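Aggregate trends can hide what the representation actually does to any particular protein. This step matters because it turns folding into a mapping between discrete strings. For completeness, the protein is quoted in full, as a sequence line and a line of structure tokens:
=====
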Amino acid sequence: MSNVPIGVDPPARPELRKSLSVLDGVAVAASSTAATTSIGIGLGVTAGVVGLRLPAIMLLAFLPVLGIAGAYSRLNRVEPNAGNGYVWVGRSLSPWLGFMVGWVNFVASLAFLAYTTAVTGSAMLQLAGDAGLHRIGSLVLDPGSTAQTTAVGIVVLVLVTLTAVTGVRTAARLQTWLLVFEYVVLLGFCGYGIVTGPHPFRLSWFDPFAIPSATALAQGMLLSVFCYWGFEAAFTVNEEVREPRDASRAGMITLVTMLGLFLLGSVAFQRVLSEGELAGHGAEGLAYFGDRLAAQPLAALPLVALMFSAVASLQAGVIPTARGMFAMSRDRTLGPVWSRVSARYGTPAAGTLLVGALATAVAVLALVIPRLADMIMATVNAVGIVVSLSYALTALAAAVRFRSLLREDWRQGVRAVVLPTLSAVALLALGGCLGWSFYSSADHFEVSADNGWFLLLMPVVMIASGFVVAAWAKYVRRSPYFRTGTGTDADSRQLLTTSN
């Protein structure tokens, strides 16, 4: 029911300006996924868990993510909305769960922006070292210091946030050029590494059964899901594309491209680097890879690509986060500041600036973990768990919404119901397994990336805080979302017609 009195026109629904093409959507999603950053840093972190089975774990993680992408695409066809999972889960499952999806994506994005801020600073400090700048006055520049890398990265975060305010199209154009450079460098160096690497190619690299344990499999899978995370950024700008199907095409194109790049990168890294070298260089892994293949100044190109990737993913992280908050604010689950649309740019400018400010605050709070490598490990594990929860709930929403297709057309039913359900179950099981392993691995709490209780506390706080904010939205703000977010008619003829 509406709170608007009879005979009074409801307030205008805030609208975003439609200006994006499929290519723009791909640029936003690919920058958000940040293949170069995932390859340069994520592969080393994952190798520390699964050893020389990077191609296997990347392929294995792709399967449930592909099922999730199918669910996003089908839901987007019937209901394009900047809030995507928040709206779809709220209507098909429960407003509380829907709000949870929106909230965990928000807090996970803030954590990701804080992590990427430090990565950006690290890449810049590494480049400064390659250029011969090792100290400023009495300060020795250290690309492994969380404090120094965060300070440099915050400057970049402020600049890209201001750029994002001017519009998605402006950001997409910048990201397109950055992506072209990144991918040329990645393809060149990884291709050369595959051909010339000293370590022989082995089919066992693709064998998931050779992964050391079930815990390593679960953690490796969620770390890999984190690497794929970001393809759905194409759906957060679906109200700004000229045709909603373009968002679906952009998301799927991005996901398949990421698979190809991750397989190329994982094979190349394992041809060039030993297992110890892979796991031991953390945020400096891509720079080390470049040094093994070329002399300066060519060896610096992968590091420049990493810096460009981090800058683009900072901007791409701000954009979809602001759009998600825009959709939640329209339903009065969050304050009105998030849904204010700039008359000049047609974007949620105030919300975009607020996302940048909050990400800066989180980056400063992350200084409690002094080593960059430890901060990256803690962040990636926490985000991997909450993102898997968000993906799983969205897939289950698609299964519920389109369940009647099992009776109407079993082929469509398998794609729309069975595959998303299997993907959701797999991700929930992996998250539960990893959470239990964190809980059982420690007998005390300390702020450390190798303390299981600390690693488990981070995603628990992310999720629990969502229920607190949801209760405020329902009982204090009296958001209509908690009355209208349920009751989707999954047997509606309109849904069946549109989804086929």
Summary: The chain has a mean pLDDT of 80. The first strand starts at residue 135 and ends at 136.
